[in-house]
Amino acid sequence: MRAWVVRAGENGERERAALEEGVLVVGWDRLAMGDLADAVTRDDIKAAVAAAYPDEGPYTIGNWTGQLHRFVHEIQPGDLVVLPLKSLRVAVGRVTGAYEYRAGAAEGMRHVRRVEWLVTDIDRQQIQTDLLDSMGSLLTVFEISRFGAAERVAALADGKPDPGRPDADEFAASLTEPAKLYEEVRRRGAEEPLTLSVRDFLAIWGVQRRYPASTEQIKNELEARGLVTVPPFTEGTLDSRIAVLAGGAEPDESGTSAVTRLSSSLVLDTIRDLSAGIAADVARWTAPGSGPAGLGAHLPDEEAETQAVAYRVSNLDSANRMPECVRVGDSLGTATTLMVLRGYSQLPVLDEDGRLRGVVSWESIGRARMADPNAGLQAATVRGQEADGSDDLLDWIGAIQQFGYVIVRDHDHKVCGLITASDLTVQFGTRVRPFVLVEEIEQRLRRVVDRCIPLERIRATVPRGRAAQVHSAANLTFGAYKHLLKVPENWAALGWGIDQDHFLAALDECRNFRNALMHFSPDPMTDDQLIPAQGLLELLRSVDPQI
Question: Given 351, 386, 413, which residue is the final one in a domain?
Answer without folding.
Answer: 413
